[in-house]
């Protein structure tokens, strides 16, 4: 990749610069600044069927190359519903930073819970569990096999959130995650620490790492060992995971001359969760197929939607009671050679001013119980709530009881 130096005027005091877009992977943070050209489009089947979208992108890349950039990139986010417009752009400048160095910035410390006005459950427990129960009923009456139901949690601060501060705090707390900050519509910014790689393309090689089947971490080594063993032995979680792996295998098989799929899942650890994980690795039959086309072929996987896809999407629209928009879409980058990485936009939040909407979902299958799925979403929300030292989801206005003399300075204003 090209590294384009920033003009001096775009550096912040002390040499640090907050990017407009950032994406961390495998120890490096891609940082993009400014917009040379915006390519917002609905990335549905029609966009790829006739090749017009990819032709438009190729023309934009050629224009950038004519300006002296050897290998320009595209960055941005795609919503859950591919019929809605994505937020994609070719940046004016980009560079990379070591993720460890960025996380070591003093500004990456946890934020202060005392700076929050309220944490509000937009969808309450009774409503969520009722939706899960209705979904379980659909498994008896329709061909639906799995549906992912999610809920939002609204956080309000006393001052405007700074997305750059959130990004650095997420990097410090989640060093192995795909940490991102991406501007989206209406002045909002999508920030998060996703554990799940949708697709990575490097030359002919593609990698996808679907996750499904989860359990919360424990501070006890013995309890964690037992939870790991239980997760691997869980018929419910193994079934949920198999649906995702089978869908990813089917989507990639048509593009690959060789595809390696492990016989059984392993368990990966994030700071807050245990997940069943299967890493699929393939060799493309046509190396010109772009990472974004592959991502589109995969999205939405049963990890964020369900199976069959159409029935699951319809159930989500009927049962969730709110619009997902950017949650459970994808975020990432691609260069002019089609190489790139796209992660699922989960363990994330949507920032606008003093408000931060968080999201978490759980895969519902026939063996699910409503209470367990609620607890799974609560555990997943801790990835973002840990930014404020709050931990598990609190009732409305619980943050107002946080001590005002917390050790960490507020420093949340932009």
Automatic annotation (TrEMBL):
Key words of the record: Isomerase
Pfam families: Chorismate_bind
Catalytic activity: chorismate = isochorismate
Cited InterPro entries: ADC_synthase, Chorismate_C, IsoChor_synthase
The keyword Isomerase is assigned to this record: yes
Chorismate-utilising enzyme C-terminal domain: residues covered: 126-380
MF terms (GO), sorted A to Z: isochorismate synthase activity
Organism superkingdom: Bacteria
Protein name in UniProt: isochorismate synthase
Isomerase listed as a keyword: yes
EC number(s) from the headed UniProt entry: 5.4.4.2
Similarity comment text for this entry: Belongs to the isochorismate synthase family.
The organism's taxonomic lineage, starting at the top: Bacteria, Pseudomonadati, Pseudomonadota, Alphaproteobacteria, Rhodospirillales
Organism from which the protein derives: Azospirillum isscasi
């Amino acid at each position: 990749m090209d590294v384009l130096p920033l003009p001096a005027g775009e550096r912040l005091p002390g040499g640090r610069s907050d990017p407009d877009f950032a994406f961390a992977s495998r120890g490096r943070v891609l940082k993009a600044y400014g917009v040379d050209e915006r390519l917002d489009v609905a990335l549905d089947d029609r966009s790829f069927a006739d090749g017009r979208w990819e032709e438009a992108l190729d023309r934009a890349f050629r224009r950038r190359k004519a300006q002296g950039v050897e290998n320009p990139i595209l960055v941005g986010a795609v919503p859950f519903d591919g019929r809605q417009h994505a937020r994609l752009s070719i940046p004016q400048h980009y560079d990379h930073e070591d993720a460890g160095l960025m996380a070591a910035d003093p500004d990456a410390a946890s934020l202060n819970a005392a700076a929050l006005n309220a944490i509000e459950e937009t969808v309450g427990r009774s409503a969520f569990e009722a939706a899960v129960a209705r979904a379980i009923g659909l498994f008896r009456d329709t061909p639906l096999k799995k549906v992912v139901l999610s809920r939002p949690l609204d956080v309000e601060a006393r001052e405007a959130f700074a997305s750059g501060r959130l990004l650095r705090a997420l990097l410090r707390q989640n060093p192995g995650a795909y940490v991102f900050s991406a501007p989206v519509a209406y002045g909002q910014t999508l920030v998060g620490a996703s554990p799940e790689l949708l697709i990575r393309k490097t030359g002919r090689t593609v990698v996808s790492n679907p996750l499904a089947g989860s359990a919360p971490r424990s501070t006890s080594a013995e309890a964690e060992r037992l939870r790991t063993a239980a997760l691997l032995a869980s018929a419910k979680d193994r079934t949920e995971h198999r649906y995702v792996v089978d869908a990813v295998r089917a989507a990639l098989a048509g593009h690959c001359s060789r595809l390696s799929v492990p016989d059984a899942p392993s368990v990966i650890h994030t700071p807050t969760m245990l997940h069943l994980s299967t890493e699929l690795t393939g060799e493309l039959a046509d190396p010109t197929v772009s990472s974004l086309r592959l991502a589109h072929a995969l999205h939405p996987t049963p990890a964020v939607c369900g199976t069959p896809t159409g029935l699951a999407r319809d159930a989500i629209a009927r049962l969730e009671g709110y619009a997902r928009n950017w949650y459970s879409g994808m975020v990432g980058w691609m260069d002019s050679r089609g190489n790139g990485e796209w992660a699922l936009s989960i363990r994330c939040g949507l920032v606008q001013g003093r408000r931060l909407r968080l999201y978490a979902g759980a895969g519902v299958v026939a063996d699910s119980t409503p209470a367990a799925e609620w607890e799974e979403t609560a555990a997943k929300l801790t990835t973002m709530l840990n930014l404020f030292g709050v931990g598990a989801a609190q009732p409305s206005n619980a943050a107002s009881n946080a001590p005002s003399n917390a050790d960490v300075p507020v420093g949340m204003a932009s």
